[in-house]
Write a structure and sequence with these properties.
Number of helices: 8
Shape: elongated
Helix content: 10-25%
Oligomer: single chain
Length: 424
């Protein structure tokens, strides 16, 4: 029988609805980040850098691009005969077939996969955070404390703590209380959604709570184990960690990459971030273009000005166009004499000549003010923006739009333009 000390289960099935039109056609972990990466590259790279060579990736929502990106795991050296990376979508079983209904339910439905490796420990990860972490150090901590469960936790400002699962620990680091999104948090130590379980403890809890609808780690499994008297410890992490679950945090995390000395360095030799890169020619920058404090992807052709922006691969920027404080994903075509300010433009978008994005004042978005905020313009995949139109702030556009969609040539701040057949 195969024996692995620790295997990782990476939850990558989330829709990421708070990213609005960016995730209408793609799962959140497959969204582009930093010009050439996808969000899921970070936990996968952490695994291989931490010596974990067996990773189950649980997919559900819009999995096609994620599956294609991961393939058989070659970029992460996870193409192994024993172990390696395995995509685990929901599947039909003999008695009934069901979707994954919660984080723990998804893991429960893959008990057979985990049992194949007879692990001592199981590492549970989420596919939508940007960070570098050595899981081996966390495992050493787990063993030292003879823990049943170790939860990675990090200090957050107390005013933000109610957004997280909060842990209260004693002097040893043992967790005495666990509160999921408490209105009045008793501590500022937030769970990062990264868990190491001793395998027998995880298996018993999953089987015991298998009837629980929408079974979840934070809401059900951890409290159940805590009540049973399991030894649960907090492993305090102090490095860079970003939940890129909202458009504003996604935009900020990308913008931080272009600081002169970025807080998060993508290019450290000893902790590489691996990705599945297409083989494409180098970028072309014309004599008249201006580029300042930006990341420019391979295969891009730049004829205009780019300031403080992250540009993906295969992007074309026409003459006279000025881009500022924006994220442009791969294969976007931008025409001539455009002004693009504080925008997030998804893959395959076409913007015709003389378009202005990001005009006017900040007005809350009328339909989804909690999603389209921060003064951003967000454009969904493969959309088309016609020539000469102007678009305000806190707006969202998805689909092939035409001039008639813009009253007097303008989409006012706070408006949303989703064409029929597109998903918001």
């Amino acid at each position: 029988m195969i024996k692995k000390e620790m295997i990782a289960m990476l939850l990558a099935g989330g829709q990421g609805s708070r990213l609005g039109v960016l995730t209408a056609k793609v799962a959140k972990p497959a969204v582009a980040f930093g010009g050439k990466y996808r969000i899921i590259d970070f936990p996968l790279s952490n695994c291989i850098n931490s010596g974990i060579d067996t990773v189950g990736v649980l997919t559900q929502y819009q999995p096609l691009r994620l599956n294609t990106h991961i393939g058989i795991g070659i970029p992460w050296d996870l193409d192994r005969n024993i172990g390696g990376v395995t995509i685990l979508p929901p599947y039909e079983k003999s008695a009934n077939s069901e979707w994954y209904t919660g984080t723990a339910n998804a893991i429960y439905q893959n008990l057979n996969y985990m049992e194949t490796f007879n692990p001592d420990y199981v590492l549970i990860l989420s596919g939508d955070h940007i960070y570098k972490m050595d899981y081996e150090v966390m495992l050493d901590y787990h063993k030292e404390h003879n823990a049943d469960i170790t939860i990675a936790a990090m200090p957050v400002p107390i005013e933000e703590a109610s957004r997280f699962g909060v842990v209260v620990t004693d002097s040893e680091g043992r967790i005495t209380e666990f509160e999921e999104k408490p209105p009045k948090p008793k501590s500022n130590l937030a769970s990062m959604g990264i868990y190491i379980f001793s395998w027998p403890v995880l298996k018993e809890a999953l089987v015991k709570l298998s009837e629980q609808p929408s079974c979840d780690f934070g809401k059900h499994i951890i409290p159940y184990c805590h009540e049973k008297g399991s030894r649960i410890f907090a492993y305090e992490y102090t490095g860079y960690w970003k939940d890129v679950g909202t458009l504003s945090s996604y935009w900020e995390a990308n913008m931080e990459l272009i600081d002169i000395i970025p807080e998060f360095n993508l290019y450290e030799e000893f902790w590489k971030i691996y990705t599945n890169s297409d083989i494409i020619p180098p970028q072309y920058i014309s004599d008249n273009s201006v580029i300042e404090k930006s990341i420019i992807g391979e295969g891009s052709e730049i004829y205009g000005e780019i300031h403080s922006s992250v540009i993906g691969s295969g992007v074309t920027v026409g003459k006279g166009t000025v881009i500022k404080d924006s994220i442009i994903m791969k294969d976007v075509h931008i025409g001539e004499n455009c002004v693009i300010d504080k925008s997030i433009i998804a893959e395959g978008v076409e913007i015709k000549d003389s378009v202005t994005l990001g005009i006017g004042g900040e007005v809350p978005n009328k339909t989804k003010p909690n999603i389209y905020s921060g003064g951003l313009v967000t454009i969904g995949e493969n959309s088309v923006i016609p020539e000469g139109v102007q678009v305000g702030k806190n707006t969202a556009i998805s689909g092939v739009t035409v001039k008639e969609d813009y009253p007097e040539g303008v989409l006012e701040s706070g408006e949303t333009l989703i064409k029929a057949g597109e998903r918001a």
